[in-house]
Amino acid sequence: MSQTELARPSAAPKRVLVLDDDRFVLEVLEEMLAAAGPYHVATEEDARIALARLGEHRPDVVILDLMLPDMDGIEFLQAAAVQGFRGKVVVLTALDDGLRDAACDLARALGLEVSGGFSKPIGAAQLRHAVEC
Description:
The protein is of the alpha/beta class. The protein is 46% helix and 23% strand. It is built from seven helices and five strands; from the N terminus they run αβαβααβαβαβα. β1 (14-19), α2 (23-36) and β2 form a beta-alpha-beta unit.
């Protein structure tokens, strides 16, 4: 193996977990991510299941909606932080800007790195930039 090969970091695709209770939104985001680059994408419709599988998915980035049944996005972020998740977070919501910004501030206070907070629908360039940040 050459020195160049030894110095080159592994180019493993980023692991992205998308959490939204709307199957159509999950499919659209999964297609957008597939077109944006080499990502390993997992999708979940239920926040409690996503939380239980967080160790299995091992995401570098979590993209989530705030409005989820049973366990909302804020509760998910709190529980994920308690479990030790330290990846990046991208918040997507149809809620007003103030609530979205407050959720992003809370995520930061929990020690999570927020790559962005966006209103739905998110554009492909915005999504790619948020995941790569």
